[in-house]
Amino acid sequence: MTSLFTARPRRASRRAAPLPPLLRLLILTQLAFNIGFFAVLPFLSEHLGQGIGMAGWLVGLVLGLRTFSQQGLFVVGGALADRYGIRPVVLAGCVLRIAGFAWLGFAERTWAVLGAVLLIGFAAALFSPAVESEVARQAVAWEEESGGDRTRVLALFTVAGQAGAFVGPLLGALLLAVDFRTACLAGAGVFVLVLAGHAWLLPQRIPGRARVRVRGGARLLLRNRRFLALCCAYGAYLLAYNQLYLALPAEVERAAGSQAPLAWLFALSSLLVVTAQLPVTRWAGERLAPRRSMVAGLALIAAGFAVVAGVRPAGWTGTAGLLPAAGFVVLLTLGQMLVAPVARAWVPDLAEDGRLGLYTGALSSVSGLIVLAGSSATGLLLDSGLPAAVPWLVLAAVPLAAVGLLPRRPTDSPAGTARA
């Protein structure tokens, strides 16, 4: 297979070959997953604090454990998908997610809430890397057979996920008019439908996919310097993106006196991805080599932080004070559109035969650990009392530093390709 990163930008035909049924199913899966997930989770902290009466530190602990049980264990789910195939792993994840949401709807004691959120997180650690790795593998096969661009498939997968993240909270807000339990049971109902659909439509065996032993995969991964470099660069991007939930709320609170405008800025980001991701990916694919696409995306993200840093000393408030925040969101989202699909499309070129699930999960797990450590440092930076522009300038340096981490010399994967 020709590596994606040895190829030059190309002008694809206007009529791309249609995606195979399995790819379409997996992309719709991402949409359904996010609708069910975001119908519940955005409202969890308020439910725990006001509905159940948990202390603030305990709410933070619960949310942190959910993130760890999901993001931190992606590598486990990916390895299991390599060993047993995606069908049993996806179905098991759906069953656990149904049980977790149903349990959360009735949980009132701390131990019950903890058990429910851990189950919800581990469910995603099973099915998400399985689905993502198979989408990447199928995208490579489609690219080889049709001459299309795998990055566009990954971009479509991103759009589906973002659309679900946009629709889910709207559904959850409507259901909360009844109560939180109803939202949880509705989220479980979405995953019942996903489970039934996949039990019927997901093939028992996928052609071209061979199962491999779990043992030995981690050792090969840790020796793969190019992949680890990509993980670090991707982690830097995610750390910058995570500032939507850390630095941006503080800036909005300062400028507007409340966090009410935050919902509109989040909606702006989601709508940009849904409407512009595919055109941006098509434009970049025709004009930029993939590595340059990532470099451009990281530069845009850095520019978003620089916009706020440049205006912050002026101390603008009100509508004018929100303009730099809006510029930050737009530039960050545009950078995300260039970085995320290409990074995901790069993984098959770096993974050993049969280990694409492990590598896909590891990309999320390693970068998640970087975000966990970096977020703590960012929190200290924002509370350090330094001049107003300094924290934003430091944050701007993070994606710029990530540019130097990207593998420079095009080469094929170290031990074959993702056609496992």
TrEMBL record:
Name of this protein: Major facilitator superfamily (MFS) profile domain-containing protein
Transmembrane segment boundaries: 21-44, 50-68, 89-106, 112-132, 153-174, 180-203, 224-242, 262-281, 293-311, 323-346, 358-382, 388-406
UniProt keyword Transferase present: no
Pfam families cross-referenced by the UniProt entry: MFS_1
Domain Major facilitator superfamily (MFS) profile residue range list: 22-414
Organism: Streptomyces ambofaciens
Membrane topology: Multi-pass membrane protein
Localization of this protein: Cell membrane
InterPro entries reported in the protein's UniProt record: MFS, MFS_dom, MFS_trans_sf, MFS_Transporters
PROSITE patterns documented for this protein: MFS
The entry's keywords: Cell membrane, Membrane, Transmembrane, Transmembrane helix, Transport
Source domain of life: Bacteria
